[in-house]
Amino acid sequence: MSHSPSARAVRNDAFEQSGELRREALAENRRTASERELARVDESRARSVEHLAELREAVARVVGANTRLSISRATNSLDFVYRAIDIHTGEIVNEWPQDVFVELIRGVREDVRTDVDAGLMLDHVA
Q1: Which ranges in the chain belong to alpha helices (H)?
Q2: pLDDT digits (tens, 9 = 90+) for 22-56
Q3: Do the beta carbons of residue 64 and residue 46 sit within 8 Å?
Q4: DSSP symbol at 65
Q5: Measuring CA to CA, which residue among 88, 93, 89, 90 is closest to residue 64?
Q6: What are phi and psi of 15, to 5 degrees?
Q7: For residue 116, what are the contacts with CB-CB under 8 A and spacing of at least 6?
Q8: Dist. CA 22–CA 67, nearest whole Å
Q9: pTM above the 0.70 mark?
């Protein structure tokens, strides 16, 4: 059973065209997937920036005005000690053990989130 060269050429052309269509569809799927992934990354990055701003504002509210936060290892444990230090005098204004500071931040962060949700602007970010 022999096939004419022209019939073979037609089949080859059809095969090549279907292969090209598959390649184009695959390339379009990759572009679409990449765009969706980039959108997800941008969304995730925006959430991270928002969370960081909330955390900074919470820390600023806990340690107070004209202070900076100092974090150091406690002398008798693996925990950390958090200190609010006056930026002008260097005096320790307040000191918290790790568990207390973390709970303070959690509570204040909820307040910050409520303020943001209510439309209040964050005027100061530490």
Answers
A1: 5-63, 98-117
A2: 888 888 888 888 888 888 888 998 888 888 888 88
A3: no
A4: T
A5: 93
A6: -65, -45
A7: 54, 122
A8: 63
A9: no
